[in-house]
Amino acid sequence: MGVRSWFEGWPVYRQLTGTDPLGRGAAAKSDGSRALTARTDTADSMARSVCPYCAVGCGQRVFVKDGQVSQIEGDPDSPISRGRLCPKGAASKSLVTSPLRQTTVRYRRPYGTEWEDLDLDTALNMIADRVLAARDETWEDVDAEGRPLNRTLGISSLGGATLDNEENYLIKKLFTAMGALQIENQARI
Amino acid sequence: MAEAHPVGFQWVMEAKRRGAKVFHVDPRFTRTSALADSYLAIRAGTDIALLGGVVRYILDNELDFREYVVAYTNAATIVTEEYADTEDMHGLFSGFNDDNATYDQASWRYEGHSQNQTTRDSETQRETAAGLENESHGAPVGGETERDETLQHPRCVYQILKRHFARYTPEMVERVCGIPQEKFLELAQAWTENSGRDRTGMLVYSVGWTQHSVGVQYIRTGAIIQLLLGNVGRPGGGVMALRGHASIQGSTDIPTLFNLLPGYLPMPHHANHPTLDAWVDSIAHPGQKGFWGNARTYGVNLLKAYWGDAATADNDYCYGYMPRMTGDHGTYQQVLDMIDGKIKGYFLLGQNPAVGSAHGRAQRLGMANLDWLVVRDLFMIESATFWQNAPEIETGEIAPERCRTEVFFLPAASHVEKEGTFTQTQRLLQWREKAVEPPGDARSELWFFYHLGRIIRERLAASTKPRDRALLDLAWDYPTHGPNVEPSAEAVLREINGYDVATGRPLASFTEMKDDGSTVGGCWIYTGVYADGVNQAARRKPGSEQSLVAPEWGWAWPANRRILYNRASADPDGNPWSERKRYVWWDADKSEWTGYDVPDFEKTKPPSYRPERDASGVAGIAGDDPFILQGDGKGWLYAPTGVLDGPMPTHYEPVESPVRNPLYRQQANPTRKVYTHPINTLNPSPPQEHSQVFPYVFTVSRLTEHHTAGGMSRTVSPLAELQPEMFVEVSPELAALRGLSHLGWAHLVTSRAAVEAKVLVTDRVTPLRVDGRIIHQVWLPYHFGYEGLVTGDSANDLFGITLDPNVLIQESKVGTCDVRPGRRPRGQDLVDLVVDYRRRSGNLVHRYPPMVTTDVADTSSDQEA
Ligand code: SF4
Description:
The complex is a heterodimer. Chain A is an alpha+beta fold. Chain A has three domains: 3-34, no CATH class; 39-96, ADC-like domains (N-terminal domain of TfIIb, Single Sheet), CATH 2.20.25.90; 106-188, no CATH class. Chain A contains eight helices and eight strands. In chain A, the strands form three sheets. A three-stranded antiparallel beta sheet of chain A has the order 1-2-3. A three-stranded mixed beta sheet of chain A has the order 6-7-8. Chain A has a two-stranded antiparallel ribbon with strand order 4-5. The longest helix of chain A has 18 residues, at 120-137. Helices cover 24% and strands 13% of the residues of chain B. In chain B, strands 24-26-25-31-23-29 form a six-stranded mixed beta sheet. In chain B, strands 9-10-11 form a three-stranded parallel beta sheet, with no helix packed on it. In chain B, helix 3 runs antiparallel to helix 7, helix 3 crosses helix 8 and helix 3 (47-60) runs parallel beside helix 10. Classes of the chains: A alpha+beta, B alpha+beta. Strand 4 (106-108) of chain A pairs antiparallel with strand 11 (406-411) of chain B. Iron/sulfur cluster sits between chains A (51, 53-54, 56-58, 81, 85-86, 88-89) and B (5-7). Chain A: Keywords: 4Fe-4S, Iron, Iron-sulfur, Metal-binding, Oxidoreductase. Chain A: Its cofactor is [4Fe-4S] cluster.
């Protein structure tokens, strides 16, 4: 390495002579950092999404590499958020990739003291059995005056407000057809 | 707002840079206060007194935007002679019925109306949270009214309002809220000076206003101010609800609520809605004006969407399949019913009531007394592990080997692992693309409910029972795709939008809906989101390439309108009120409404249009009536019907308060919804004895770094690290009084629970002088629980259950407590401590009907005593 290139490699020199007087960009780069590329550049795909926390509805860009979420960033195109995310929105990647996430069905039998494993299909069928049984046992056809009730008060539901509209639509549709009236949501709270 | 909606707050800062003055009113100094021009520390639960003071200031000084008020509000409308005000009745309105604590609203009606048109009595309206139906339209009234546009008639709304708020003086604001008069006047002056032709002022609120026993009236007071100042339907104006969850607006529009169907149609009631005709006529009274006159169309389209080909004119579109309400079936009633063993199964779908709902102990004991519980979540939340780790394990109230509840935990897909729409706080639908497949057994709710429905229908396929017809006839054939057999969210969105049955063409607008079964539409207010077969919610034209209104980003209901009632941004003749505030106006050359937004008015109805005397529906709305979903086309300063606790807001003390109401003898909202269950114990408030046992006011709210019950933040390491511990903010004065030390421990006690927290001694909370004495307030975050990376006691355990009568939201923003140094006791000692507090405070539970205190004089406070 010649003296000149050694000298030009000195960040302060670059900061004073280059286009980065504050030393926050090019001037501060080392050979190591110069060789890095952003995860967003090397992603296989990007999905346009929306932050799942509050109702400001900030735009997110979800970058995917090898089938895994590699980065979530604010969407600069969004007229709502202009690329910004708050601490929660910025933690979305940690949310979806958290090692604490449960990815298998867990089952606790009545009076049980431990969780057990259960196959998803079995769980779904067991739940269907219980829904139908609870509905049968608590069904009300008519009121005291013979007016229709068509319902069960033996089943309850409480949903969060991070459910999609399409999901809420199917939930309400199915429960209504089942006669299950006691369907509530965070929106009450 | 800077704390809980940080990225939204950038627009407040942008406005501030352009000269807007920002006022922040909060019991505690927050990041928002730090950036505001002025901060007003308020006693929790007294906002109506503050806002009422502003109403009085406007009216006394005649600072209202008179042209707007006369033309667009009901200020000029005359009210019947039978009406009597809180001024004359110690804080009650006329029509109060002691037996069931409800108002007969007949005496509130407009002059000349024989009766209000609602078919349901007030008690049924309270039980079924009927106020929620008004989210998309006003309560029914007839269109013809008697008016005095000079506003001088003693019974015109303007004069009634003036009299009603006469006692909300600056002195009274100071006495009730603890806000110094100069501070109050600074706010009132700035608000009025920045409203009018050239300027608009905006009001922003969140659950600090809604979670009260008189919460709907908080917002009504804000709306009255904004109408008086001409700040509704205009750019930079409005009453902005900042909602706290990604799609909480969507969860009311397409509700999973017991009392509503999509598009704010009421769930049928057994006595009031026996037939399709009775149901639709109760929504749109024959002869009523406005868009809501088409209720039959919206109802029939929903029934067609539910029951498809089986729904025909001959069988009233399967209306008979609908389950019927008989009363209150809300979440708090359900929990008490669980404790009483009446409920067998419970689904929790991304919701954590063990931490997030009021009276956590009642929530957990309820869950421990079920046959089965299904929890669908990303993480192992408190509501799934109550049988193992609840605080009641330590006290012996729950023991795994005695707890019969069978628990299924099913992992859920995250927001990047499924596609669909969220509706954010401005009614804007935004479609999310799917980035990756969900891991392992994780699935979307769409998957879970589609397949649950499929299996149930298969099981019942051979059934001949009438009750199963509704399931078997259900239109449930959604296309599926991918390795998990995921139903198509886009197909569901198309059904929500609606389409023509014969051709399958998606509807462009709800005005294309027919009431003869030839169209289908699952949620009429969302019609247009799939117009032209294009997913309009997926539009992503960059904001930088659009106007400020950005109409091509996502899609807002109704009809992609970004500001509701925007006809009011033009004067009665259709011209902008000013160049500066130009938004939507009448283009006389083209004979149509035009502007920066989609006009919220019939496009070609001229400002000069006047309806025939008995015109109904949309034809009944005049060309200068901007409030097209109101029966009289006007913005309501006074609600002649539909608001169960009064036609105008009145300050009542919170149900648990250390203070006797300084404004009226009536202490608390007389019509509040109460539950008399023994678990629902009550802290006494004046004029009851022993209120000094719980001398301090506590309030709760969010931290920037956490999300509600913590299920999506205490489980995420960067967020957990930023806010790792439960804490309580106390003033230096209270710390000295109660012997608390900074970073030491304290515990708070109510008649429900004791919770402990680390002490943060800070000037952010300050003692207030209220009605001649010092009131100490403390503040806590409500995010903590016993699972996740960071844990702590739950603030919501401190609250009892009392609800607003209009919408059945709980009072969980204010309560009374005692504050003690050190950690709370454990096990039986903890139970004993709470029992002792109950004993010393008189062992109270809620009673029905709630206490009326108008005959208990308080010499220091009642001006007429
Ligand atoms: S990034 Fe923050 S402000 Fe934006 S939607 Fe998410 S939680 Fe709300």
